[in-house]
Specification:
With about 550 residues, this protein is of the alpha+beta class. Among the domains are: about 230 residues, DD-peptidase/beta-lactamase superfamily (Beta-lactamase); about 90 residues, Lipocalin. The protein is built from 14 helices and 22 strands. The strands form five sheets. It has a nine-stranded mixed β-sheet, sandwiched between helices. Strand 18 and strand 19 form a beta hairpin. The protein is globular.
Length: about 550
Amino acid sequence: MRTARNLALFVLLGAATIHCGSDPSDDGAPGGAADTGGGGSSSGGANAGGNGGAGGEEIDPRFQELIDTVEAERQSLGAPGVAIAVIENGEVTFAKGFGSKDPEAEDPVLPTTLFRIGSVNKMLTTVALLREVADGDVEVEAPVTDYVPEFEFAADPSWAPSIRIEDALRHASGIYDYLEIEVPDSQKEDSALESYMTGGFGNMAFLMNPPGVFFNYSNPNYYLAGLVAEKVSGKPYRQLMKEDVFEPLGMTRTYFLGDEVIADGDYALGKADYPGIPDVVHPDTYDNAWARPAGYASSSVLDLAKFVGFLLDGNEAVLPKALSDEMQSPHINEEALLDLVHYGYGLQVWEGSFLGGIDSPAGFYDIGVVEHTGAIPGFSARVSYIPSLRFGVVILANVDDAYFSESLKTAYMTLADLPEPSAGPELAVHPEQFGQFVGTYHEDFGIGDITVTQDGDDLVVEIPDLADFGITYDPVLVPLAENSFYIVLQGGYYLPVTFINDGGDQAKYFRTRIFVGIRPEAPQPAAAAPPQARAPISAERKAAFAARLRAAAKEPMIGF
């Protein structure tokens, strides 16, 4: 039986996807560590201070191990540049740029440099929506259609009213993860968030499973969150974010438009390897107004450090402390790694971390970690913090799939006052329990039958229709823990698979982010209204699904 022990980054601190394709070690990037600069302070966020490097001060020697690790990891990941900020006791004590803003030239990264932040954007959108909750204008348990009655799915009119605000915030809507990185100019206007989400989106999108049943990360959840906030507030999404979130928190250099980033002048160009996207990504290379609430902002580590400060200490002028605490509280078990990983509202919540390694006899730290990663072509982002220690780290890089897990680990291990480690929960996989996963699952929107069998100590999957999409896969699932596995696509992309049941003897769902198989004999959960008979799949939707599968087999899922 093969194991996923070599995929320890998955459980280190929450890297949700792992791209195991090309070896980046021979893809060096220009430049080394840039002179530090920036800093600054503002109400409601982390202040720059100390002598760790924010603002050009002499660097405290206690940061040297972190500096060395970041530079080494930058080169191993093939990242042209990266910026990092460390927050201690609510203060930015270290902020530094490494490498180059430009993948093809020397242009040193600064702590002030802007990067696209991908799905880190989701925590920002959450604040805008929760402000409407605080004002009594939105109820999280109410259907989305109470606020956007025009939102509907062409395939089944019963679906949209069954999705609650909370389902969107905690990624439990069941909506297929539909995203177009670049769109026609008409869909880049602010009005497109409403016009597309109440029009063309419903013709393409569908529910993979009934809402409210389980967690499954999907960008459209936050298109909806942004749209509800826009509709209820009466302000276009960009205006709402600027006036109600960014300005009150002092995040004066967080933007959505490429023109704004270019006018600012201090920005990174992305190094991309994504179908249909140029190798070098400029601020105006791609845009999508209806997807902005899920991941199109650009920001700096210093602006995002202010947001971490808000999460740590609150700011009643922006959001009641009870609601900012709700953001970072567990609302749904992700069911991917024992009971350690949950999702709040726009944030992932870990109830412990294997910082010392999965196989270490004392590698587990029993302390809560909150974080979110971001991925969008040419850029990677990571915001991670420990609320109980008021300690956090922000990392932004201008290359795909670079989450700087070793650097984050070094920051926590060398700078934070961690508790004593322990053995932690057992991640053992027991083949004698595989029988609960064996059977046939069905997916209605292109994948068809998914047959799972057991061969000795191996769990084997057969998905004949994947061949129709030009996708190859290894039939032997790679186990991680209990009900968590990987299916290896195209010989290198590890797609997480989770078997989910509802307290019975047999798993009901074969969950991946791209598709969900349902055991035919499994009854629909009583908590959710079962969808009506589904309409035939359009050729357009099949083509979009095929493109998504092919992209997923080459790249990490955008947005997480």
